[in-house]
TrEMBL record:
Residues given in the record as pyridoxal 5'-phosphate binding sites: 100-101, 128-131, 200, 203, 225, 255, 281
Encoding gene per record: kynU
Protein name: Kynureninase
Species: Rhizobium lusitanum
Family: Belongs to the kynureninase family.
A Pfam family hit: KYNU_C
């Protein structure tokens, strides 16, 4: 194994980083090392410009006219197509709307309706909880439905699939461990059994190359406030493969999913395309913030992004294990970079306190109960020196025991 790089070597990596110039587009405070872009991405100047224009000009002066003159009505599909380019979806298959949780509800219902006679939903026991809460909510709407969980009912998702399974809801990258699934292989396996798949892309959209069309995926959902940098509470997206559009129904059939919303017809006639997944009036200012954020992505080479992401996570693992291994931190993420998203998680018995001490020192990651210190590496604005610095501060906190100060044990609502 190569020897541990020193600070000069790490700085040299920044010098030759092809993505380095992107950092200046973001408005990060100079005294912060931001390793939480997997939870809330950073703001770019493009976002502020879009929001200012949408609020002051289009709303302020254009008023109601802007639904037409500023293209507000078409934003969900316009932005869906832009995200589609990052997740391997050809045009007309992705729409931005609602939250990931709500979109899980809609896609689960759509998939179940497409597989009459099948009554099982499969998911992962260690999924992000909302996926399971929503699946349980769907199960509660029909007495014949059941939920099978990986980790509870069998060891792997694959073992749970049989001809009673209608749909599998699965994460591309696990929110806690950072484990990356093989999308093409699992999609094939699920479809060979006659079931449909919904991929949760919350931790892979904008974090690595994704190829939904190439994998032949059925549905996907994901959020835009993490790696895509759309802003706090930014609306989520839904992908549905074109071949399914004629069969899609979803229960949240509000007027925005109607084929002719401004005809105000008494009976519902769902839009034929991807707009069928909309429900009600869309949050235009949030959509415009997202539009600003997505404009940067037009310039990003996703393969270069992935290479840098792997280099950043690799470096962090090596530095933390070398500097902090003796203080009770244990790697939770896989060492296999091909099976890892753009995050690194370590377990520590006092993970909450350690993370609060890190945040006070300007190194911002997050804590996931019961013991995970989670660090996200967003290649557009995190550099190699940041990684070095973060590992060094973590070492200082652990070796001095400063995390034991009582103020770090005070729990906040959001961790
Ligand atoms: C994997 C995953 N799915 C779903 C969600 C929840 O999304 P929302 O709050 O937009 O419904 C999150 C949020 O962090 C997540 O990490």
């Amino acid at each position: 194994m190569n020897s541990l790089p020193d600070l000069a070597a790490v700085e040299a990596m920044d010098e030759t980083d092809p993505l380095r110039a992107f950092r200046s587009r973001f408005t990060l405070p100079s005294d912060v090392i931001y390793l939480d872009g997997n939870s809330l991405g950073a703001a770019s100047q493009e976002v502020f410009a879009e929001v200012r224009q949408a609020a002051m000009e289009e709303w302020g002066n254009g008023l109601i006219r802007s639904w037409n003159s500023a293209g507000w009505f078409h934003l969900p599909v316009e932005l869906g197509d832009r995200i589609g380019r990052l997740i391997g979806a050809a045009e007309g298959q992705t729409v931005v709307t609602d939250s990931t949780s709500i979109n899980i509800y809609k896609t689960l219902h759509a998939a179940l309706a497409m597989r009459p006679g099948r009554n099982v939903i499969v998911a992962e026991g260690d999924s992000f909880p909302t996926d399971l809460y929503m699946a349980e909510g769907v199960v509660s709407t029909r007495p014949d439905l059941t939920l099978r969980l990986e980790g509870r009912d069998a060891d792997t998702v694959e073992e749970l699939i049989d001809d009673s399974v209608a749909v599998v809801l699965v994460n591309h990258v696990n929110y806690k461990s950072g484990e990356l699934r093989d999308m093409a292989a699992l999609t094939k396996r699920i479809q060979a059994a006659g079931a449909l798949v919904i991929w949760d892309l919350c931790h892979s959209a904008g974090a690595l190359p994704v190829d939904l069309d190439g994998a032949g995926a059925d549905f996907a959902v994901g959020c835009t406030y993490k790696y895509l940098n759309g802003g706090p509470g930014a609306p989520a997206f839904i992908y549905a493969a074109k071949r399914h559009h004629a069969s899609i129904t979803q229960p949240l059939s509000g007027w925005w999913s109607h084929a002719r919303p401004f005809a105000f017809e008494r009976s519902f006639d769902g839009e034929a395309g991807i707009r069928r997944f909309l429900c009600g009036t869309q949050p235009i200012l949030s959509l415009r913030a997202l539009r600003g954020a997505l404009s940067i992505w037009e310039e990003v080479d996703m393969n270069a992004l992935r290479q840098k992401s792997i280099a950043l996570t690799e470096l962090f693992i090596r530095l933390v294990e070398a500097k902090c291994g003796q203080y009770g931190v244990e790697l939770e993420t896989t060492r296999d970079s091909e099976k890892r998203g753009s995050q690194v998680s370590f377990k520590h018995g006092n993970g909450y306190e350690v993370m609060q001490a890190l945040i006070e020192r300007g190194v911002i990651g997050d804590f996931r109960a019961p013991s995970t210190l989670r660090f996200g590496f967003t290649p557009l604005y995190v550099g190699y020196r940041d990684v070095w610095q973060a590992a060094t501060v973590l070492e200082e906190i652990l070796s001095s025991g400063s995390w034991k100060e009582p103020r770090f044990a005070v729990r906040s609502a959001v961790t």
